[in-house]
Amino acid sequence: MGVMFTEAESESKLEDLGDFLPSSEYKYLIPNVDYTVPIHDLPLLLVQLTKFQCGGISLSLTISHVVVDGQSALHFMSEWARIARGEPLGMVPFLDRKVLRAGDPPIASQFHHAEFDLPPLLLGQLNNAEERKKKATVAILRLTKVQVENLKNVANEERISTDSGRGYTRYETLSGHVWRSVCKARGHSPEQPTALGVCVDSRKRMQSPLPDGYFGNAILNVVAVSHAGELMSKPLGHAARKIREAIETVTDAYVRSAIDFLKNQPNLTRFQDIHALGGTEGPFYGNPNIGVVSWLTLPIYGLDFGWGKEIYMGPGTHDFDGDSLLLPSPNGDGCVILAISLQVAHMEAFKKHFYEDI
After folding, report:
1. Which class for 167: exposed (0-12), middle (13-18), buried (19 or more C-beta within 10 A)?
2. Which of 80, 132, 69 is closest to 297 using CA atoms?
3. Which of 25, 192, 218, 300 is most exposed, with the fewest beta carbons within 10 Å of its own?
4. Which residue among the candidates 117, 212, 252, 304 is catalytic per the annotation?
5. Of the listed 65, 96, 112, 252, which one is catalytic?
6. CA angle 197-201-203, nearest 5°?
7. Which residues of 92-131 are buried (b: 16+ CB within 10 A; e: fewer)?
8. What whole-number distance in Å separates Cα of residue 66 and Cα of residue 42?
9. Residue 65 annotated to the active site
10. Who contacts 289 (Cβ-Cβ below 8 Å, separation ≥6)?
C-alpha cells in the first residue's frame, strides 16, 4: 500500500537520548506498524521524520523485508540522499525480479532445506510457546579491534593445524563466540540441540552473479546446528567451522532449490517473521537458538541529505529473545558493536561470558 511518511515533533532534545540505547523514548522515533492487519494492506515503507527542540532531526525507516534486504535498503537510502543533494543517481536500481524467479511450474527441491524446518526446542518441551512469552532486554556491547583480532587468532589456531584454507572471517568468529556465550548464559545441558541462524547474501553466489544494483531481497537464511556441550567444551574454531559449513551450502543450485521449495508451498504463513510478533507461528530463534545478522560489510554510515553526515545510525527495535546484530564501528577503527536481545534472566550472565572468554 505504497509509502507512509509521518512528520513528528518531540518535546525532547537530541542530547536527552544519551547514547541512543533502545529506550521508551527511542521507540517513539520509529514508525509504528499495525501487524494485526493483513500483510497486503501494510505500506511497503514507513518513514518518520522527527524534529527535536534543539533543531536536530531523526529519520527512521521501517521497510518490508519481502521487498528488500539490507543491501537494497541502504541502496535506496543512499540514492534518496543523493537526490536530496541535487545529484544524479549513483547506481540505477535493477528492478527485474525474474532473475530470481522459480520455474513455472516449479520443480521439486534438490536439497533438504533445514532452514525451513522448525529450529530445536528446549529438551522436554513440545513447543516454544512459553519461551516466546518471556521478557527480553537489549544490550549494546563493544569489542575493540584488538579483542576482535584475538578472537580470530583463537578460532584459527585449530584450523591452521588441520586446514590450509582461508582463515575464519570476523563474522564466523564473532558469531561463534556469541553462540558459545549464549549457551553458557542460558545454562544448557550438554545434550541440548541449538541452532544459529545466518543470513547469506546470494548476489555473488549465483551463476551468473546478480546484476549490480539488483533491488530486492537476495538473502537466504541458513542454519548452523550443534549441541551446547560441543560448543562449550570444544575450541572456538568448532563453532566457527559449523557456521562456515552452513554459509558454504549457499550455491546457485541451493538458492534456486530454496525458491522452488517455497513456490511449492500452499501456504507461506509459517515462514513469515510477521507472524512471530506476539503469536505462536513464524520463525523464532530464541532459547535455545539464536540468530546473528551481520551489517559488518554494509555501507551504513555517512548518509548526507545535504546537511552533513549523521551523528548516529543504528538498528531500531529488537523484538525477540535471540535477535542479534553485528555492526562496524562508526569511527572506522576496527571495533565491532554487538546489539543483542536476550531474556532478562540470561543477559547479565551473557555479558560475563562474552567478555571473560576473550
Report:
1. middle
2. 69
3. 25
4. 304
5. 65
6. 160
7. ebeeeeeebebeeebeebeeebebbeebbbbeeeeebeeb
8. 12
9. yes
10. 119, 120, 194, 195, 196, 197, 322
DSSP of 127-189, one letter per residue?
-SHHHHHS-EEEEEEEE-HHHHHHHHHHHHHHHHHH--SPPPPHHHHHHHHHHHHHHHHHT--
Closest CA to 121 of 280, 9, 306: 280
**Cell numbers 576473550: residue:** 358
pLDDT in tens, the chain (358 residues): 789 999 999 999 999 888 777 666 788 899 988 888 888 899 999 999 999 999 999 999 999 988 999 999 999 999 999 999 999 999 999 999 888 887 778 888 889 999 999 899 999 999 998 998 899 999 999 999 999 999 999 999 877 666 657 899 999 999 999 999 999 999 999 999 999 999 999 999 999 999 999 999 999 999 999 999 999 999 999 999 999 999 999 999 999 999 999 999 998 877 877 655 556 666 788 999 999 999 999 999 999 999 999 999 988 876 689 999 999 999 889 999 999 999 999 999 999 999 998 8
Q: Residue 90 corresponds to which cell in the numbers above? A: 549513483
pTM over cut 0.90: yes
Write phi, then psi, for 170 (nearest 5 degrees).
Answer: -55, -45
Q: Which residue has the cell 509521518?
A: 6
- In 3D space, the residue among 246, 222, 242, 247 whose CA is nearest the CA of residue 158 turns out to be 242
